[in-house]
Amino acid sequence: MSLNCNEINVILDELNLEGAFIQDIIQPGFDTLAFYTYKEGCAKTVIVCTAQNAVRINEARRKITKNDKPLRFMEFLRARIKGCRINSCAQIGLERVILMELSHGADSEIFRMYIRLWNNAANIILCDGNDLVLDSMFRRPERYEVKGEVFIPPAVDQSKFADCAEQFPVRKMADENPSDDESHATHDFKTFNEFIDWWYSEKSSSLSRDALLEKAEKWYSASRTRQEAALKNLEEKRESFKNAPKLKHYGDLILAFGHNLAEDAEFLECEDYETGQVVKIRVDPKKSAQENAAEYYRQYKKSVSGGEEILNDIEIARAQLKKLDDLYAQIRDEPNPVKIEQLLRKSSAPKQKQKKNRPGLDYNVSGWSILVGRDANENDALLRHHVRGEDLWLHVRDFPGGYVFIKAQKGKTVPLDILLDAANLAVYFSKARNAGKTDLYYTHVKYLRRAKNGPKGLVLPSQEKNLCIEPDKARLARLHALSRA
What we know:
The protein has 485 residues and is an alpha+beta fold. It is built from 10 helices and 19 strands. It starts with a helix and ends with a helix.
């Protein structure tokens, strides 16, 4: 239930914001703003919520949870109106739209902030003194609530004023649904703002939490179905790789009985010397017996190599599935709907919409940051913009591949375990992935020199050290589960 017009007036009268200064602005969620105000020795936190069925403005006494990352509208308001004086703050008629006039001083630019508290179209729009929109919490082109448009305040309908007190009564400051243990208890609210803050924190938050949990369940169900399907495909592929010995045996049979292969024949029929049964082997009529056998040997090697790699991919897929289950459990156990919304927004955002601070892959292992470039462009971008002289650089010897960097920490030496993690990643993201034991070299970034007229990202190292490792699949599975690509 959102605030009605009379409740808004009661709240504004109690807040008495005229003459107050906006000291700071916090945006805990995409639909909520908190203004920290100060007036005559009195500090107040004014929260404005635009969430459906919880649209309101009131003084908040509880701690406001900060968002994990600064949000766009909050940063914009901080740049424009932080430190402003509130010259006036009143509802326009009884239209549930608050007009707040702001300025940094007597002769400075005037800002007009409209706070529309309509249940299905709530918004906060900051305009200049001529109602030209500077920005809004929700950009709605169809309502002209985007930068550069002129905001048109609602027209005041005098006919609404006659019976408004009876039609829209102010809620009584008491617990309307006390628990069984407190059936006769009421809360001692000193102001209507206290009552509204309690009412929404106790009731509306639970409704909001239920709605968010329902949304989280849909996201989790869709994500788990998709990941389970991917895991099933990997396991089916692994089963197909189990036929690798059969491919090699077919190659042996073709070499043994290739002299019986008729011209333009698509099959070779021969007796399997292991089972004594007649087998029929498909061959390419355009190729000789030796060439057909070589093709079966090639498929055999590919299946053996793929079978080893698919096990690693299956472990990674299982780790990601567990990570999804753990995150969903965290969301279900979180009592704060604001934090649920933050976790859900971060987890369900499409990859292309998630802002990346750096190119390539980013791993955080025991407090150490490992960066991985997967191609020449990412290698070059990391070298130019995201690493410094003391950072460690790793690359495989004699094979093309990505650059791996370990970000330095002041006064600390890179632990051996972190170095091995980075080395395994360097091998995995190179052509040496299936080469077995592999040599790498590593040195500090300050000892890298760009190759003159060389390909993009190519560097010549000096003072490098050698490292030889056997790729560790368990280690790689753990690292891929930590990836923040």
